[in-house]
Design brief:
This is Beta-1,4-glucuronyltransferase 1. It is found in: Golgi apparatus membrane. Pfam families: Glyco_transf_49. With 384 residues, the chain is an alpha/beta fold. Helix content is 33%, strand content 17%. It has 12 helices and 13 strands. A 9-stranded mixed beta sheet has the order 1-4-3-2-5-11-7-12-10. It starts with a strand and ends with a helix.
């Protein structure tokens, strides 16, 4: 890994420790999202970029070109190139710039790199989401980290609102180091190409009047964000200052266990929260595992009012290949990760459903113990 890649020498002097850093990750073909993120977030941003082999040459030229187009980006954004040891970063084809005539053309060149933009990484190397998330987190120099995907955009002035919120307590959140709270930010999705809402009033109008906005993964995995209770959140009046709208209760009556097992919220948390398990690669359970650990470790999930995220485009059904990836991670989660949590924490908490869920297409008949044994044998006989 190459940390602090092409960063302004005065980067660390620009920020107080009592602040919030956006931590995100992507492959080279999604670097164009960083520009919009930088435009909407006024604080520091830490970006981990997956750059194996010659991907590193394009990533290098893209980053340097972005910094020429938007010089102030160096003052707020750090890039960290991450690559597997067997596919080391190769910058031999880097020229130091991309061939473009305008900054808007540069965005399009990065957007078009590699063809289809629908996937974060399209190579034959497993995409290490959690390695990248941890790298981005470790690149943050502030007390709080806002961990999000690179293609979701925050509401305007969220950083300022959270810092005011954090400092209004008797001693301030920045002084209460032992507080076990993560601050969940509800996430929505908007029709491709429509303007991202700036505040809650604009968001409500976009959803209820213009019908452009809906809860994130509404058609593909609605339960993945069900505990954020979007309808309840939208009914909360917009206040002048940021505040906690409600706490998401893990075992709330009426919640299907599957909702909680599949919950993958975006949140602001202290830099000291548990890291992501780097065994999870590609898609499925890669964020759920860390939320599960936070629950078992005794953290509470406070959903913020007046703060939200928006993904550009409505999510569509995944390709069949993703189901295989999800199945592998499901087995890793149930048979290895959750068992390890029992040994790590004394709290008698669990995030498993009452009856273990098996992905469609992998469901087998027979005694549950026999099914588990057969699934585990299948998993262990294949490559994770």
């Amino acid at each position: 890994m190459i940390r602090m890649f092409y960063t302004d020498p005065g980067y660390f002097s620009n920020w107080e420790y009592n602040d919030v850093t956006v931590a995100t990750q992507c492959s080279a073909n999604h670097l164009h999202h960083v520009v919009k993120l930088w435009e909407r977030w006024s604080g520091p941003i830490s970006v981990a970029v997956f750059a194996p082999n010659l991907e590193a040459s394009f990533a290098t030229d893209a980053i340097l070109s972005m910094q020429k187009c938007w010089p102030d980006m160096k003052k707020r954004v750090t890039f960290h190139l991450v690559y597997p040891t067997q596919h080391k970063a190769d910058v031999s084809e880097s020229t130091g710039t991309l061939d473009y005539n305008s900054c808007e053309e540069l965005r399009q060149i990065i957007h078009d790199y590699g063809g289809d933009d629908s996937q974060n990484y399209k190579g034959d190397i497993p995409y290490p989401h959690n390695v990248l998330r941890n790298a981005a987190r470790k690149g943050a120099a502030t007390e709080f980290v806002f961990l999000i995907d690179v293609d979701v955009m925050p509401s305007l002035h969220m950083r300022e609102g959270f810092n005011e919120f954090a400092n209004k307590f008797k001693h301030g959140l920045y002084e209460e180091k032992g507080d076990k709270a993560v601050f969940v930010v509800p996430v929505f999705e908007i029709l491709k190409g429509h303007q991202c809402p700036d505040d809650k009033a604009d968001l409500k109008d976009a959803q209820m009047t213009r019908k452009e906005v809906r809860p994130f993964h509404n058609a593909t995995c609605r339960w993945c964000h069900e505990p954020e209770d979007h309808d309840n959140w939208l009914m909360k009046p917009k206040n002048e200052h940021m505040e906690v709208a409600f706490n998401a209760t893990w075992n709330k009556i009426g919640f299907d266990c599957l909702y909680l097992l599949s919950w993958e919220p975006f949140y602001i948390a202290r830099r000291s929260v548990p890291l992501f398990d780097e065994r999870f690669k590609q898609y499925g359970f890669d964020r759920i595992e860390q939320i599960c650990e936070l629950h078992v470790a005794g953290y509470r999930f406070s959903v913020l009012n007046n703060a939200f995220l928006v993904h550009d485009g409505w999510k569509e059904a995944h390709a069949a290949a993703r189901m295989t990836e999800t199945f592998r991670n499901w087995v890793l989660f149930h048979f290895h990760f959750q068992q390890a949590l029992l040994k790590m924490y004394d709290e008698p908490l669990s995030c498993a459903p009452v009856q273990t869920w098996i992905p469609r297409g992998q469901r087998l008949l027979g005694d549950i113990n026999n099914r588990h044994a057969r699934i585990q044998r299948k998993f262990l006989s294949s490559e994770v």
